[in-house]
Each structure stands twice: as structure tokens, then as C-alpha cells.
């Protein structure tokens, strides 16, 4: 082996970037998300939704209430939070677990930039694998009658942002982010959100539905939360979770293998 | 920026004290951080690398605190002990990503890969690399921004002798170039071959510091204990105790052996076979009974 620097090293050109987005962090995150087993689930759930949509349309014909039932119950109630869990926690959790995050953190890149970039990637992946299939399934189910397809797709996109931020934060807090995320998605959102009226107020699904309600035709979608409150809660959750995830990453400690 | 100052640093995890009031200065050249497993070496390196806050004391690089100071990574290169490193990338992609995170590009990545002689495998996925190849790519990622300080946590673990020699040569050159190179190891010979300066850590405490020859002598000159069996233990004991290199001999009737404490290692190792030959005694067993690294380190702490 040989070194190429016989004299004392000059100061490197790299300087902390002021931007909140770093393309290299985005590339690493994106490839990690879509290169592992979790990509299978990311592809399987939307594929299942589209298959259901095709089957229902073929067997029962176009029907608005059936479309709402599938898009609201399965898609927004179960699929979107699940994809949010996979993309949100997967954007950072595995790197922290296996220690490879050290290669990101040992660089002059501000930690909020790392978090914000990862949030953008997680959101992009969640939107691509939930809102887009929801739109497609909506068109397949009833041809976007009463704007149901677009309304649910918008709701799914809005929910994608909030879920990504929430589950990204979980990924920085606990090694069991996927478990906690699944409990939230399946128990809180899908079970309590359906059965317990009070829980619906604190449900990302209901906040997203409030936004979708505005887009869809009168009465096509319903939400237990008023639109202004929903927007406030979505903003507070997304901004708060992102800010706190940045703080967590700033204080992240590695304890080695001793 | 080239000098790391660890000033009265302690770090505890709950009730466990991993590092206990350590003060040391790591300057240009190669320094070995030596200590048995669990001594607190990784904890110290993590604090020097800004990945762990000291519970007490300060860790600074030329006066600037490292903890929560992302700017310090412009001067520090880190080779972590853990294996995980974006296995889905090729070696070239990995080093390039590290370069880009420093605001650098392909030229710097190519130069770093050439430095560790990994060009031949740079387009293979990291998941296919051997331990030594991984270690070299980790080195390249740490060198890509030409840092003045290089921290390596157990860099020789799992390397074969040839890879070990190559890495030693590389680190030696880095030290000669004026860089501050600190590596941890629990193997004395490893440290001895490479580092001119040694810091010894045992059970979270700073046990010794300085030139490796001095510390090596200290280790060699400590009282050594041997278990010796012969065909005439009592005659052997009588002959050995007359020499000042032997401090005490116990006749262990249960074991049927002599337990000998030698205070002059060099002289005793020469004395024993000579005395046996001169007295016509046949030696059946000669085994050091306290040669474990832990006992050597424990002696250093007490010294």
C-alpha cells in the first residue's frame, strides 16, 4: 500500500451544506429502501389493492359505495399506514441498528439535513407506493365517479407525509420501530380508529380524510375531524416529528461492541 | 489540526463505569490504544470520534469540542469496528458516496481506493468482500477527505497476516506524513509492531502511557509465576532459591509441582534449564501460570 501525500494534508474542500437536501443521502436512502426485502412488501400491497379493484369491478361493476369501502377501509385504513411504517422506519432504522449510520454522521453534513432528506425520500416512496396505486384503484373501481379516486389519492398523499415523519422519528427513537409502527398502524388506526370515536380525532387517517373530503364530491368522503383542525394537526405532527428526529440524530450515541 | 486532548474524561452507562477519569494527549504519529476486551477502548474512540458524549471531562481536537460538532469531521477520519457498511453498494459507489458527503467527487474517491489498493475489486458489491477487503474500503472511506486525524477501532481484527502487514505499512506512512493516527487493539504484539507510542487502558482506567519499549520492559520485568514439575522437585527448589532471580518457591504437594515466583524474567529463563542440567534433574513441565493478558494488564495498573 502507499500513500499519495508526503506532506501534511491540506484542509479539505468539503464544507457543511446549508441546504436541507443532500442528494447523496437521498440516493443511499432510496437504494436501501428499494434494495432490501422490504421492497417486496412495498410492491405487494399496492399490487394487492389493484388486483382487488380489478376483481371487484369485474364481479360487481362500478359502485361508489364499494369503491369508498375499499379505498377507505383497506387502502387508507391499512395499506397507507403499513407502507408508511415500512418506508418511514426503513429510511433510517436499519442504519442505526447495524451501525452503518456512522458513515453518514461522521461527515460535515448537518444532522437536520440528513433527517429532512430521509423524510423526503420516505414520503416520496410512500406516495409512490400508496397514493398512486390508490388513484389507479379508484379509477378501476368506479372511474373516479364523485371524484372518489382523486379524493382518496390526495388523502393518501397527505397521510404519506405525516406517516413518514412519524415513523422516521420512531426509527431514531427505538430499535423496535417497526413493531411500534405496526401497533400504531394496525391497532390504533385500523382498530381503535374504526371502533372508538375519541381515537378518531387523534388519527392521521381521519386528518387525511378531512383533506380528501374537501376534494371529493359532497358526501363522498367523511371525516370526524374538521378541515382546519386536521391541517393544524397534520402540520404540527409532521414538523414536530421531523424536528425531534433531527435532535435525536444530533445526540445519537454509538457505544461500540464492547 | 492534529492533537486530541482527553481531559479527565469519564463515561458511565447506568451504574457501569466504562471510562474512569482518563487524561491523555494524542499527537501526530501512530499511537496504539492497548487494553483487553471490555477495557473501554471503543468507548474512548467513540468519544474521540464525537459519537458519545463524555459523562464528565472534555474531548477536544486542538481546543475545539468534538461532540455535536459536525465541522470537526473535516479533520477526522473514522474506521469503525462494526462490519455494516451499505453492502448493497459497490466499493467504488461506497467510497464515492463518502467523498460526496464531504463535498468531494470521483477524483478523491479514486485516489482513496488507490491508496488502499482496492481498485481491482472496486466494482464488486461490498456484500461479496472478505473481511480484509471490507477493512480496506472502510479505510478508503475514512481517507477520502485527506484527514489529519485518523481513528481506527480494532482495525486488524479478522485480517490475514498479509493484509495486516499492508495495513500496518499504510498506517505507518500516515503517521510519518504528520497525521495523528490512533488505533485500538487488545493484542500487544500488534501495537508493538506499529505504534511508537502506547496508551494502555484497563477496566476503564488509564494504566500506562509512553514509549512501547518502556511499557514492554515493565510488562517483562513484572514478577512471573511458573508451575514446574521435575523428577526431583525439592533438589530443584533448593538450587533455584539460591539465585536472586527467584523470589519464592512453594512445593505444591497436591499438584506434585513447584510454584515459582521469578522477579528477573530474563535471568530466570536462563537459570532454570542450566540448574536442571547441572544437577542432573529432568524437567517434566514448565508452564507460566499468569501469562493471560488480563494478568499482565492488572500488573500494569498496580505498577
UniProtKB/TrEMBL annotation, chain B:
One Pfam family recorded for the sequence: ABC_tran
Alphabetized PROSITE patterns for the sequence: ABC_TRANSPORTER_1 (PS00211), ABC_TRANSPORTER_2 (PS50893)
GO molecular function: ATP binding; ATP hydrolysis activity
Keyword terms, alphabetized: ATP-binding, Nucleotide-binding, Transport
SMART domains: AAA
SUPFAM superfamilies: P-loop containing nucleoside triphosphate hydrolases
CDD domains: ABC_DR_subfamily_A (cd03230)
InterPro entries recorded: AAA+_ATPase, ABC_transporter-like_ATP-bd, ABC_transporter-like_CS, P-loop_NTPase
All copies of domain ABC transporter, residue ranges: 4-228
Family per record: Belongs to the ABC transporter superfamily.
Record protein name field: ABC transporter
Amino acid at each position: 500500500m502507499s500513500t499519495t501525500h508526503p506532506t501534511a494534508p491540506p484542509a479539505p474542500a468539503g464544507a457543511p451544506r446549508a441546504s436541507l437536501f443532500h442528494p447523496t443521502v437521498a440516493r443511499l436512502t432510496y437504494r436501501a429502501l428499494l434494495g432490501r426485502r422490504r421492497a417486496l412488501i412495498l410492491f405487494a400491497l399496492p399490487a394487492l389493492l389493484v388486483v382487488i379493484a380489478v376483481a371487484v369491478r369485474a364481479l360487481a361493476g362500478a359502485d361508489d359505495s364499494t369503491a369508498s369501502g375499499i379505498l377507505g377501509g383497506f387502502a387508507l385504513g391499512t395499506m397507507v399506514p403499513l407502507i408508511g411504517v415500512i418506508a418511514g422506519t426503513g429510511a433510517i432504522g436499519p442504519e442505526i441498528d447495524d451501525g452503518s449510520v456512522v458513515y453518514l454522521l461522521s461527515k460535515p453534513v448537518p444532522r437536520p439535513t440528513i433527517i429532512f432528506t430521509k423524510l423526503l425520500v420516505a414520503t416520496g416512496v410512500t406516495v409512490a407506493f400508496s397514493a398512486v396505486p390508490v388513484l389507479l384503484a379508484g379509477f378501476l373501481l368506479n372511474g373516479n365517479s364523485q371524484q372518489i379516486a382523486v379524493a382518496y389519492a390526495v388523502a393518501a398523499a397527505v397521510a404519506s407525509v405525516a406517516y413518514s415523519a412519524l415513523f422516521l422519528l420512531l426509527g431514531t427513537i427505538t430499535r423496535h420501530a417497526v413493531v411500534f409502527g405496526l401497533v400504531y398502524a394496525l391497532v390504533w388506526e385500523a382498530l381503535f380508529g374504526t371502533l372508538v370515536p375519541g381515537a378518531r380525532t387523534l388519527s392521521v387517517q381521519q386528518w387525511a380524510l378531512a383533506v380528501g373530503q374537501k376534494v371529493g364530491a359532497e358526501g363522498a368522503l367523511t371525516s370526524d375531524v374538521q378541515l382546519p383542525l386536521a391541517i393544524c394537526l397534520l402540520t404540527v405532527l409532521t414538523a414536530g416529528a421531523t424536528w425531534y428526529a433531527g435532535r435525536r440524530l444530533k445526540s445519537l450515541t454509538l457505544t461500540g461492541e464492547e | 489540526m492534529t492533537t486530541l486532548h482527553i481531559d479527565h474524561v469519564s463515561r458511565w452507562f447506568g451504574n457501569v463505569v466504562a471510562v474512569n477519569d482518563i487524561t491523555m494527549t494524542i499527537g501526530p504519529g501512530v499511537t496504539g490504544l492497548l487494553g483487553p476486551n471490555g477495557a473501554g477502548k471503543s468507548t474512548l474512540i467513540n468519544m474521540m470520534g464525537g459519537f458519545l458524549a463524555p459523562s464528565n471531562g472534555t474531548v477536544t481536537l486542538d481546543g475545539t469540542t468534538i461532540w455535536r460538532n459536525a465541522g470537526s469531521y473535516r479533520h477526522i477520519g473514522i474506521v469503525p469496528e462494526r462490519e455494516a457498511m451499505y453492502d448493497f453498494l459497490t466499493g467504488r459507489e461506497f467510497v464515492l458516496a463518502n467523498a460526496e458527503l464531504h463535498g468531494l467527487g470521483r477524483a478523491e474517491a479514486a485516489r482513496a481506493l488507490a491508496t488502499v489498493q482496492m481498485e481491482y475489486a472496486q466494482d464488486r458489491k461490498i456484500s461479496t468482500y472478505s473481511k480484509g477487503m471490507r477493512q480496506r474500503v472502510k479505510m478508503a472511506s475514512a481517507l477520502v477527505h485527506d484527514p489529519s486525524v485518523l481513528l481506527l477501532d480494532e482495525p486488524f481484527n479478522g485480517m490475514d497476516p498479509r493484509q495486516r502487514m499492508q495495513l500496518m505499512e499504510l498506517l505507518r506512512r500516515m503517521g510519518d506524513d504528520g497525521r495523528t493516527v490512533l488505533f485500538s487493539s487488545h493484542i500487544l504484539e500488534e501495537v508493538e509492531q506499529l505504534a511508537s507510542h502506547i496508551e494502555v487502558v484497563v477496566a476503564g482506567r488509564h494504566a500506562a502511557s509512553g514509549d512501547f519499549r518502556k511499557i514492554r520492559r515493565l510488562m517483562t520485568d513484572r514478577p512471573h509465576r511458573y508451575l514446574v514439575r521435575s523428577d526431583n522437585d525439592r533438589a530443584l527448589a533448593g538450587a533455584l532459591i539460591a539465585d536472586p532471580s527467584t523470589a519464592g518457591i512453594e512445593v505444591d504437594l497436591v499438584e506434585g509441582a513447584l510454584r515459582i515466583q521469578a522477579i528477573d524474567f530474563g535471568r530466570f529463563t536462563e537459570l532454570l534449564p542450566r540448574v536442571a542440567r547441572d544437577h542432573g534433574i529432568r524437567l517434566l513441565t514448565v508452564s507460566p501460570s499468569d501469562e493471560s493478558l488480563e494478568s499482565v494488564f492488572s500488573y500494569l495498573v498496580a505498577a
